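The record is kept unedited without comment:

——
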Amino acid sequence: MATTASIVPPASIPGASPAAPRWIISQREDLTWFIGSALAGYAAIALMWAGFPLLPLQAVWFFGIDGPHVLATVTRTYADKAERKKLGWFLWIVAPLLLVGPAVAITGHAGAFFMAAFVWQQFHVVKQHFGFVMIYKAKNRERDDTDRKLDRWFLLGSLFAPMALFLIKVLHFLETTRLSEAVVAAWVVLLCAWLARQAVKLRKGEQMNWPKIGLLAAVVPLQWLALAYGAKFGTAGALQASIPLGLFHGLQYHRLMWFHNRNRYSLPGAEERNGLAVKLAKNIATYLTVAIGLQFLLTFLPEFLFPGQVMQAAVWGFAFMHYLLDAKIWRVRSDKELAVALRLA
């Protein structure tokens, strides 16, 4: 029979040296792409604040990072023979999604549609950050129930509170000073509780999940700054908020997708099992060419040829497709092959 000491993780034994942090790819890669790429968002805010023209920033975000990240989903769904079989009819959902925007725009509610699309976009971004936090918790075997609940509420509160303040201000929705103050006060309580928990763990010499803490330290201030800056421009400020948040989100996603693709599609028998997806994972140039090329063909070209709100609303359908597919294809608990590709199994 095993002794108690042999089955307790070393980090939880009094006096034991804390285990080294565990990363998704490696310390250098994670700090560069999953945490450090927040610097691109901070730089974008600084440039906009300093009066730098918006168009170049929008072009880099739309053509080089955010748009291609949406269509990079194709490399592990539509291009993957096994995933096509698994997802089945769901892959056709893009067809009705392309019609939703034009239908709303034609009825004269384009503004409401674009704001709703922005809110869904930000909800999707929050889900990705939550996913990274959960991966870091799994990697570092952080299973304490108090940490699980507190991390969840702190992250969601930290990312949704500034979104609520943005909507209150730009939509004049129940706009009162007291409501905004209540939102901020609730978040401050969460912040203090979370910081107190980290201080207690540190004082007791418990294992600290530094990758998770680093991610939270990067994303939380960025969320508040980006949405506060965007709110200065009213409903049009959704663009100013989206650029810094989308730069961080897109860079994270590209690196995670490439890491996943290289791992999954390099396994023996992958070409026969997964088809075209294997060829798209041969090298980074092929992957990026496909992602950027699809962005040009499916979003930029239609908007260029048929300018106007109706076409702008239509191409949002590809983003909606991305949001819905992502909710299905990144479920680590129910997908053993995904867990292996992300080095979680």
